[in-house]
């Protein structure tokens, strides 16, 4: 496609905005509209912004995109998908479908994805990345992320032999059935039972009450042929708690639910999220499964009903921690989509001339140039990188922990559990809020489906609840902080993980040395901002301990734990964010590292700015002083707060010219972003107009069948001429009835002479 | 319907959950499932909670629902709608439709609404309230709220004669076309032109560039027959700025767009919002309209082109301020929907026994009993009431101002402008965030479409941008604070409105007397919390002035203005919230007033808690001290902060038992809330199960045509037996292809013996 050199404000013919895709013509503006200066300059503006980039974005991209698959694989896979007949236009079409249509499409898409995978010999990880980038939430993707890992993680070698390969090969499609209508977070309270039956040497799965109905399992509603069920193990009248059981659900032959089971889809999700996924409900009516269907890598039941407990009852935690540890960088990537769109659009969008201008032909200011915009967006850029890179550290730490756990060594388990809980709770919520902040920064056009947030926010939304409700996780972090600080009380030399080392500041003076900054520049020093994060986290734990000392029960401190956990997470993210950059310094390069370190600084300073109260409040005794702080002494002096705001302001201004380059470095393809406002080339107005012209609602339907839903007939000669069918059935009659009521019998003619 | 007395945990047959509606049977659980204790007790729990209500919710309801229509009218209208063939099941069905279907339905619904209005002789206001409660965003509702008021407000008497009644009577359907592709907030930058043509004594409407295309106007896309266009007035080469012009758009006869105009729908909105509304784009190609189509109540153009400016150039502000002043209580009502659902569900939802319990049959704790829940939700209840009641005050103030303006008296204009800008910016954002907070408090089931948030959040989302972008409004508030405090600098006795009176504290010692609280109870005194709100707002303005004194330009202070405006709004909301209760004290009753005043207190204390830094930071000179505060002296002492948190905690605990009654007092019908989780009777699990059983995705389609979309066949014998058609076309082939690939030729049989 031609670059900005052709963009003549007087032109009334437009260059294509995309390649043709299957039956779809290339997108472009068709009506003969003079482009005008405002639309013409957007591409020049973003090109000029890129000339200021003082580093090589592709170096950063290569490093951060080297994750579960490397960047070259990623580009290869995305290249195939973006030019595919079905997937090239996937995101645009799905928005035009109702749920039934989306479900049908997502099943079809999974089949096609697997065909492509076979044709191009993609690895499992490449298939998963493809599904994630497509926002393809479907029974088959759930099979991959929620069912297969459980077989391999919780099944014995023999069970993996029986089921694992067949699952990998899609001979069966599975789902993971844990949550029930009445119980989610409290797994111990699940009501589904698996009762051992001596006579048949089997387990009887049963759903005894309304609230025991399995609920929410993705793929369960209409699709899965098999499943893993979490149920209360009962042997000879004794309860052993929740265990996992492999069960058939539907006939491979015709998809009908097996006798003794009833199941279905639980209904639409909020904000039209996950339309293509059949989250399901199911009930068991004394349904028999063989005894050796109980997943028995850890716990087992022998013939006759003898229960063999797992060598270490914490071994099964591994799966839960695994999932949480995988979520952290994902939330960073989701936020990075939002911030990429926001930075590009706010750069090219101009509104209001400088107040000192008197010439109405002066160009209006770029929205990104307003501090209210940059001060809100650039920190979100820092957060995106923070969660991506801290998330890499998290996954490495998990792998170290899991390796030790294999040989029964639980040394790292507790720390990884606490860190993953803390970061899961914190990052999912920050990313969700950040995504909406990005969308709101887009102003009016941010409300368009073409802004690219239609699935981004709704699909991030449940992350604050699943895999551990964030509020419950925050309490667990609070509890851990009390436990570890209690150990330090007994022996100040107790070894503690880096992620909790700030707790030493509670009882040991100068354990975290800190001088209140005397200037904005002081705040840029890691020994200052990281120490401030540490001391804030320590102060909040001190306050928590004081509440308990004053007689409050821990169970009543769940609100206080929210802030304790946030400050803990901000400390850990800061720590890991900078460590991750050091790890990759060679691959990144000097200039690249330099700018990323500025993002580390900005992330830390804005995290502090979020809540300065614990640091600026002078100590006032009653067990709330950090060690070494006298009554009346605050950690941070009032002048330092003013310096902090200036430090942030100046740093944002310094990073701002690099922000386009830094978001380019995420490497998102336009096709992946699915956003007219986030086009890399900045041609936002042309894209909005092309889509508005060719919006299916403005054209006759090309025909029945799902293949024709959501088709954009770019270049049609009929643009602007279509009248909707229901004009005749609804609007016409409404107007004529009104004319009848009118005192003078109504308007004559076509109404153009009123 | 029978009440909770029948709810036998052992029962396997269920009572209806609703009345039949047209062709729909009554909702109920059909499968023979033992109810169980968890599901049975929800209705008992909420009934018991209501016995604790220490006031009469209906008294509050009567007062707060006496707004644009009175409560009796409202109940009459809602009663008709909730039992109507179409509207009784409206909200449930819309979620199952794609956009084309929703658009068709919303046109049909408007026609039906008007038929019902005629049949039952509803007033205009009753029709508007009906549309709002249905979340019926359609071309006809936009006609009422965005087109008709402009004709009546900006048209001369003669123009009102020509168009006003025909508009009221629906002989024409209008839209309001202001925003363009390239300009929204900067109205002066609009590019559409209206050029006077002497020869024909007409105006030529023209869209000269791509970015001049009119964009976003509701109803424009596919429906409106006429419109009011904001365009740059040009006479004999001279520009006079944006003015309003009445124009035909479509033929009344067949709905085709008139020659010289091209128009269409702009595409889907984010989060599937406003599916039934055709926000549109349009372009004019030298389209002629008569000279007397320029709305000329204020400005006029005479034959020959003489421009007559309006007597007061601020007169046209009235319309903009009107719309903002109407929005405040509406945001409160939207938030009140969310909090009603959240309080009811969190009460009946139980998860985890008390940690001290050792008996697994002990009942689990109500989620609402966790401080992390109540501490977050009860303040949102206070905010709902605050915005509803402060919004009433806002509307009264607007009416006073408008009455004076009629006779040319602009005395109140400035204050109402500032207050409406401040509250619009603040309340819309607080409500939006609050709605999501309510949904997240629902845990896992909050992600279901049946939670009732599917349209609530998405349709509140654009409010932070339309009718004045919130960030821009915040800057306007900041500018006003500088202006007024500057006047006070010159003469400390300058009269200022109540809403800005806190500014006196900047320069006059003890203008706002305040003693730092010595106990939690101290914080409950209005002279303490209102003074703290005042002093915080004054401190933030002081900081803003200091930034300017240090040389920063106002145009670079847009970020700082955000917090200035928030603290201003919180001061004003507190002021008006308590005044509104005094105004209605007689009608409300003692007990009712007592509990509402506690909500006033809670609203103020949580507003303070949101940002205590300006109050706890000791003064440090350099022009940032409030009058009378020495260096090192903070407004609020550190102990007071601890007391504040305890004060909030204790107040939340005190109000909590009344929170069900207080949310009942909003008077929302279950049908209006459209939420399975927010049922007044608490029967949440039965409703979720009934809907999951009868979810259309789980049943054969009842037939073609839009009448059959989204139908729930409650009581069907086929529940749980349906296999989706695409199982044959997509899943079956996927599994068979996998079997072929398998090393052993695949699984034999139906897979139930794996």
TrEMBL record, chains A, B:
Q: Which GO terms describe its cellular component?
A: peroxisome
The record lists the catalysed reaction(s) as: a 2,3-saturated acyl-CoA + O2 = a (2E)-enoyl-CoA + H2O2
One biological process GO term for this chain? lipid homeostasis
What is annotated as the active site?
467
Name of the protein in its database record: Acyl-coenzyme A oxidase
Positions binding FAD in this chain are: 179, 218
Query: What molecular functions are annotated in GO for this chain?
Result: acyl-CoA oxidase activity; FAD binding; fatty acid binding
Query: Where in the cell is the protein located?
Result: Peroxisome
Cofactor entry: FAD
What Pfam family is a match, any one? ACOX
Entry keywords, A to Z: FAD, Fatty acid metabolism, Flavoprotein, Lipid metabolism, Oxidoreductase, Peroxisome
The segments labelled Disordered in the record are: 1-26
Tell me which family the UniProt entry assigns to this protein. Belongs to the acyl-CoA oxidase family.
Positions of the Acyl-coenzyme A oxidase N-terminal domain? 57-172
The UniProt record lists the Acyl-CoA oxidase C-terminal domain at 526-700
Q: Main localisation, per the record?
A: other
Q: Which residues form the Acyl-CoA oxidase C-alpha1 domain?
A: 317-482
Q: Pathway, per UniProt? A: Lipid metabolism; peroxisomal fatty acid beta-oxidation
């Amino acid at each position: 496609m031609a670059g900005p050199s052709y963009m003549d404000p007087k032109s009334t013919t437009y260059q294509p905005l995309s390649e043709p895709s299957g039956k779809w013509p290339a997108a472009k503006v068709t009506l003969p509209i003079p482009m005008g200066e405002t639309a013409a300059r957007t591409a020049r503006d973003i090109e000029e912004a890129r000339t200021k980039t003082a580093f090589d974005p592709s170096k950063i991209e290569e490093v951060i995109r080297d994750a579960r698959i490397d960047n070259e694989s990623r580009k290869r896979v995305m290249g195939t998908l973006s030019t595919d007949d079905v997937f090239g236009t996937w995101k645009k079409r799905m928005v035009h479908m109702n749920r039934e249509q989306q479900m049908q499409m997502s099943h079809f898409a999974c089949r096609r994805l697997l065909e492509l995978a076979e044709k191009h010999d993609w690895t499992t990880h490449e298939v998963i990345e493809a599904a994630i980038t497509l926002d393809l939430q479907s029974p088959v993707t759930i099979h991959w992320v929620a069912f297969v890992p459980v077989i391999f993680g919780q099944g014995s070698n023999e069970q993996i032999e029986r089921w694992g390969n067949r699952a990998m090969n899609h001979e069966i499609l599975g789902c993971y059935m844990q949550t029930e209508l009445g119980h989610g977070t409290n797994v111990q309270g699940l009501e589904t039972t698996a009762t051992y039956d001596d006579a048949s040497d089997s387990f009887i799965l049963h759903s005894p009450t309304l609230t025991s109905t399995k609920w929410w399992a993705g793929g369960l509603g209409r699709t899965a042929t098999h499943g893993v069920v979490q149920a209360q193990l009962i042997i000879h009248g004794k309860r052993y708690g929740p265990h996992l059981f492999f069960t058939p659900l539907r006939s491979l032959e015709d998809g009908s639910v097996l006798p003794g089971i009833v199941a279905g889809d639980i209904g639409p999700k909020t904000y039209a999220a996950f339309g293509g996924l059949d989250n399901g409900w199911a009930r068991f009516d004394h349904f028999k499964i063989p005894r050796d269907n109980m997943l028995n890598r850890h716990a087992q039941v022998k013939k006759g009903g003898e229960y063999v407990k797992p060598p270490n009852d914490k071994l099964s935690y591994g799966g839960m921690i695994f999932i949480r540890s995988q979520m952290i960088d994902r939330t960073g990537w989701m936020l990075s989509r939002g911030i990429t769109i926001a930075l590009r659009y706010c750069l090219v969008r101009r509104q209001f001339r400088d107040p000192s201008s008197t010439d109405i032909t002066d160009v209006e200011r770029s929205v990104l140039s307003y501090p209210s915009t940059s001060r809100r967006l650039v920190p979100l850029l820092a957060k995106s990188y923070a969660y991506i890179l801290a998330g890499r550290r998290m996954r490495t730490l998990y792998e170290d922990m899991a390796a030790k756990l294999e040989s029964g060594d639980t040394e790292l388990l507790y720390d990884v559990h606490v860190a993953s809980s803390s970061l899961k709770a914190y990052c999912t919520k920050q990313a969700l809020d950040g995504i909406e902040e990005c969308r709101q920064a887009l102003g009016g056009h941010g409300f368009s489906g073409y802004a690219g947030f239609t699935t981004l926010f709704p699909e991030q939304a449940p992350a604050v609840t699943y895999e551990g409700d964030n509020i419950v996780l925050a309490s667990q972090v609070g509890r851990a902080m009390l436990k570890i600080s209690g150990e330090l009380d007994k022996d100040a030399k107790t070894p503690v993980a880096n992620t909790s080392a700030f707790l030493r500041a509670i009882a040991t003076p100068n354990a975290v040395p800190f001088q209140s900054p005397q200037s904005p520049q002081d705040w840029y020093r890691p020994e200052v901002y990281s120490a401030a994060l540490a001391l804030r986290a320590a102060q909040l734990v001190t306050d928590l301990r004081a509440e308990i000392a004053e007689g409050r029960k821990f169970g009543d401190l769940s609100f206080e734990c929210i802030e304790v956990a946030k400050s803990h997470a901000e400390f850990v993210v800061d720590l890991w964010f900078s460590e991750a950059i050091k790890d990759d310094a060679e691959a990144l390069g000097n200039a690249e590292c330099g700018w990323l370190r500025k993002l580390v600084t900005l992330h830390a300073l804005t995290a502090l700015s979020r809540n300065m109260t614990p640091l600026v409040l002078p100590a006032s005794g009653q067990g709330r002083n950090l060690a070494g702080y006298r009554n009346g002494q605050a950690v941070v002096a009032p002048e330092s707060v003013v310096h902090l705001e200036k430090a942030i302001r100046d740093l944002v201004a310094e990073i701002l010219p690099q922000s386009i380059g830094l978001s380019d470095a995420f490497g998102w393809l336009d096709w992946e972003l699915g956003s007219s406002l986030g086009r890399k080339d900045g041609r936002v107005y042309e894209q909005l107009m092309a889509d508005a012209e060719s919006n299916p609602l403005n054209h006759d339907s090309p025909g029945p069948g799902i293949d024709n839903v959501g088709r954009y007939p770019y270049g049609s000669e009929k643009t602007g001429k279509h009248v909707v069918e229901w004009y005749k059935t609804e609007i016409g009659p409404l107007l004529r009835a009104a004319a009848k009521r009118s005192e003078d019998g109504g308007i004559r003619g076509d109404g153009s002479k009123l």
